[in-house]
Amino acid sequence: MKRRTLAALAVSAAVLGLPATAVAHAAPAAPQPGAPCPPPVEGALSQVADDAVLQCSGGRWQVYAGPYPSSDRWLSHGDGLDLHGQGMRNPEMLSGPWTGIPQDPATTCRAEQTAVVTAGKVGAPQVAEGEPGQPLRFEVLPVMFSIHLDGDCLWQAG
């Protein structure tokens, strides 16, 4: 009797687990120098674990050669992307309207930014978070100090 119960439980668990695996989506691979990058991210910048900046150029991720990375297109992945804005010198991300575009239907794009409120003071974080698989539209503040972009998302100005 115990064997039948255990067998039934094992079959039930396997059947219940099928839909989850059937709808699961693999996260896009993190950018690596020389690895291919998909056409929608052409021209975008991204960071890798050692804080090196990569650019999608000619269908491949290449080490960014410029002295100060600044772009109107960024790709976040894994643990996200930390950038600074016009509240500091050499901003990596400029103020204005931005859109986070999920690169996977299960991905949620999230942006958490802080802005300079007075000389030497940064305000409380402001969070914008989308729905899974849906674009997130938000404003980067004119004196944004830092921003954390989360999710496997392409971030575009405009």
From TrEMBL:
It comes from Mycolicibacterium litorale. Keywords: Signal. Residues 1-26 form the signal peptide. The keyword Signal applies. This is Secreted protein. It comes from the Bacteria.
